[in-house]
Design brief:
6-stranded antiparallel β-barrel; alpha+beta; 5 helices; single chain
């Protein structure tokens, strides 16, 4: 287990370079529902959170309102060996549905040209009458799990169990 600040910082850097995740929610009956999403991260120095833009009419919003527990997986492809299975960051967390004018979520989506385009697209969908704009804020538990993040490809092939890792979320980021 890597509890050091540098371990979390390394994972956060990897997450900031990505924008795609799979979020799994639970239906009212406890059935799993997974969906691909584009996410933005909270600014450095603030509580760590993923923000997702969506609409009030989506299944994930209905599920989160009923049961806020989620699982998140972010694939982290190998830069020079894209055919090799990606590394990943994964965690259990709690999601909250936020209004479409939430300042922290808007600030997160304002952090790059691509994320601003995603938010603009969501605004266009809402303008066509498909629900109201909202955001999901997902905060991880105290531990983030990784696979292959701190091992070489060769070490990963030779000792796959050695690729399993975990890092603690620093208390000042909870």
């Amino acid at each position: 287990m890597n509890n050091g600040r540098s371990g979390f910082d390394s994972v956060e850097r990897a997450l900031r370079r990505r924008t795609f995740a799979t979020v799994s929610t639970l239906t009212e009956r406890g059935h799993p529902h997974a969906t691909g999403v584009v996410y933005a991260l909270s600014p450095l120095g603030t509580p760590f959170a993923l923000y997702i833009t969506t609409r009030t009419t989506t299944r994930k919003v209905r599920n989160i309102r009923a049961r806020p527990e989620v699982a998140v997986v972010v694939p982290v492809p190998h830069r020079f060996v894209p055919v090799f299975p990606p590394r990943c960051v994964q965690f259990l967390g709690t999601a909250t549905v936020l209004d479409g004018d939430d300042a922290a979520a808007i600030q997160a989506f304002d952090s790059s040209w691509f994320l601003r385009r995603i938010l603009a697209t969501e605004h266009r969908i809402v303008a066509q009458g498909d629900g109201d704009l909202c955001f999901l804020r997902i905060r991880p538990g105290s531990t983030v799990f990784t696979y292959g993040m701190h091992t070489s490809l060769l070490a990963n092939l030779q000792r796959p169990r050695g690729a399993i890792g975990r890092v603690a979320v620093p208390p000042d980021r909870m």
